[in-house]
Amino acid sequence: MPKIRTSRTKRPPEGFEEIEDSLAEFTKKMRDAENETHEGKRKAEALWPIMRLNHARSRYVYELFYKRKAISRKLYDWLLKEKYADAGLIAFWKKNGYEKLCCVSCVQTKGRNYEGSTCKCRVPRAQLKSNESVQCQHCGCQGCSSSD
Ligand SMILES: [Zn+2]
Ligand SMILES: [Zn+2]
């Protein structure tokens, strides 16, 4: 599989070569997940592995910049622009109480039939009845409250 790098794509900023392989690994896994047969699965469920990978890749970029300080601002901005990470999701991770948010859909209350409530996976385990399932319908998250 040739690398997708069209002529219109500018050369990535310095430091990209060092993380290129890890990013390519995520891309490969996402492609595999997309190609997987969805037979017997509900539509939303078929998307879960892809959303999980999107989450993991965004997390990787986020930690490189904010936690490990291993990449430059320039490279970080470039990665967001090139969609190597989900800027919307990262914006949440920087907020108090959303450090582990699984996906943006889980806190979007618009378009829900139950008004004003966030996804079950956002409820701290301490507030749940034992063995109550928190798996959400959006991404299959099994709990991403910051206090867990
Ligand atoms: Zn969640
Ligand atoms: Zn979610």
TrEMBL record:
Coiled coil: 16-43
Any GO BP: mRNA splicing, via spliceosome
Location(s), subcellular: Nucleus
Key word Nucleus present: yes
Recorded GO CC terms: spliceosomal complex
Chief location bin: nucleus
Protein origin, superkingdom: Eukaryota
Annotated keywords: Coiled coil, Nucleus
UniProt similarity note: Belongs to the BUD31 (G10) family.
Name assigned to this protein: Maternal g10 transcript
